[in-house]
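Table S2 (continued). Query chain:
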Amino acid sequence: MGVTGASVRLSSWLSAVRFPTRRNNSRQFNAFTAVGAGYDAGMRGCVLCRSQLLTPVVHATKSWRTAINRNQNLLGKLIVVLDRHEEVITALTQDEWAELHREVRWATERLRQAFAPDHLNYVFLQNQDRHVHLHVIPRYAGPRRFAGLDFSDPDWPGHYQPGVANVVAGDALDAIAAALVGTAAGSGLITSP
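Corresponding output:
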């Protein structure tokens, strides 16, 4: 399925959930962003500055957006993105740090409720996207089946392997998002001992 089809379907469930709105313009976007509206509030071409990301934003505050990571090599992997362009973590304001703490707490609680991870990693990498963002990475001692897909963490309990990709289809992203925001569409997690 193309990006446009996924964006239309995602917008249908997102319309039922209220998130802060951002102003739109008519610029074209690359494959990392949804086709359609958005703005570049900071660095031109920064995919994390866009108002609409490719994957669902499941929670937002004044300064941060939490979205599903398109790479679901570990079920429920999230990205918490600063809502302004900044490349240096130490340049965050005190209010942004405090808000990040609340956003990470929200993400942690929702991941625990939805997928019961055995551990969580929190990582600022910024190797590919030079924009302050935090990866919230659930870790699993055993396999999980969700939305008809099997997920495993073959490196448990060691370090996960960066660069391993499992880019799932829009339906699976929708189900993961629904599980995190607590809608009925998110049911169906099967855990294995």
